[in-house]
UniProtKB/TrEMBL annotation:
Belongs to the metallo-beta-lactamase superfamily. Glyoxalase II family. The keyword Hydrolase applies. Its cofactor is Zn(2+). Its EC number is 3.1.2.6. GO terms for molecular function: hydroxyacylglutathione hydrolase activity; metal ion binding. Residues 13-172 form the Metallo-beta-lactamase domain. This is hydroxyacylglutathione hydrolase. The lineage of its organism: Bacteria, Pseudomonadati, Pseudomonadota, Gammaproteobacteria, Oceanospirillales. The gene is gloB. It is an enzyme of class 3 (hydrolase). The keyword Zinc applies. Keywords: Hydrolase, Metal-binding, Zinc. InterPro entries: Clx_II_MBL, Glyoxalase_II_hydrolase, HAGH_C, Metallo-B-lactamas, RibonucZ/Hydroxyglut_hydro.
Amino acid sequence: MQVIRTYVPDSLQNYNHLAVCEQTGDAAAIDPFDADHLLEVAREHDVTIKAIWITHEHGDHIRHLEELKARTRAPVYAPLTCQKRFDADIWLEDGNRLTLGEQTAEFWTTPGHTPGHGVFYATEPEPVLLSGDTLFNAGVGNARSGDPQTLFHSIERIVERANPDARIYPGHDYILNNLGFTLSILPNLDAAARLRQQAERETPDTRTTTTLAQEAGINLFLRLDDPDLISALEERGFDTGDREARFIALRRLRDQW
Ligand SMILES: [Zn+2]
């Protein structure tokens, strides 16, 4: 499944994505913020929106759900855990498979950012993870509408299930802020400093995306056993007894940063 990423003008730094079956040109539009913009991108790439996939219930991820559905007649697939929040045609449960043209993707429930959140994972020809607001490049979602403990378990499950080479396509362009946070806690993390230099030279449209393996080098929420990170949390007075405690401490620091 090829992923076409587009930065949505006038949005809350949202990325929208088209997951595309290269054989048939069938596309799934993920979290439509702007129907006009997505239809234009689909036209430019000569693909047809045949499905709409939703990661979660926040307004900026379902903003043009109804409009895009009306204009494409594409069915809406969404997490079953969002059932009372908006309308969809097919409600998804953890492990459900979705067909797009001749290819398939898998749906995983990943609550924590919100109670309803899920992500889409495909492995052919390259592994990709459409991660919504659960896992970001160099960070994780906030837990203001959910809870950090649940988010911790969802992130751990993603790392267990996904191929380390999976490329991460989150719902927002937050990489610069996230790397700033990483470097505020671990100033000597060279991989993060190098990636920040690179990202500063790029625009939202050209911004680098990371793989899960790269994330292990730069994303503090995936480095919970790093002795330097544990020391940094202890210096700030946090309980660092287990991975979950360290994750929650980091999430709190990120909220205050
Ligand atoms: Zn959100």
